[in-house]
Specification:
This protein is an alpha+beta fold and 125 residues long. It has two helices and four strands. It has one domain: Rossmann fold (3-Layer(aba) Sandwich), CATH 3.40.50.150. 20% of the residues lie in helices and 34% in strands. Strands 1-2-4-3 form a four-stranded mixed β-sheet. The N and C termini lie far apart (31 Å). This is tRNA(Phe) (4-demethylwyosine(37)-C(7)) aminocarboxypropyltransferase.
Length: 125
């Protein structure tokens, strides 16, 4: 069974009642805020299950900076995960060019896979 929960991720955390702070419950999180969803990345990482999941990160990006943006998203999600105590491998599965938002500005969606990693002994790093 799949459950969809919609929360306004653009609200500052102090305005969201504590019973709505969704931690460790999601297999995937859609971060559909534009021009950037960066302000909600910490909340999204916290919402994923401890074993990880998928983040669909939206953003409006200059067409000449698409690769830089994707690398920034991946690196930032990894840093957030580590700061939250998760031992995840973070990888970009796909970057979709959704549409032109303005001249030389694209609306992109990066599919970011987060997976638990283990060392050679099978222990979580």
């Amino acid at each position: 069974m799949e459950i969809l929960i919609y929360v306004r991720w653009d609200l500052p955390l102090q305005l969201i009642p504590s019973h709505f702070l969704l931690k460790g419950i999601a297999d995937r999180v859609c971060l559909g805020l534009i021009p950037t969803s960066e302000g909600s990345w910490v909340t999204a990482v916290k919402a994923l299950r401890s074993e990880g999941g998928m983040l669909h990160v939206h953003g409006n990006v200059k067409d000449s900076e698409e690769d830089l943006w994707a690398a920034h998203v991946s690196k930032s999600i990894l840093e957030i995960a580590r700061s939250e105590g998760y031992c995840w491998e973070v990888s970009i599965e796909h970057v979709e060019r959704v549409k032109w938002y303005a001249p030389h500005v694209r609306h992109l969606v990066a599919d970011i896979r987060c997976r638990e990693t283990k060392d050679v002994t099978g222990t979580l790093c």
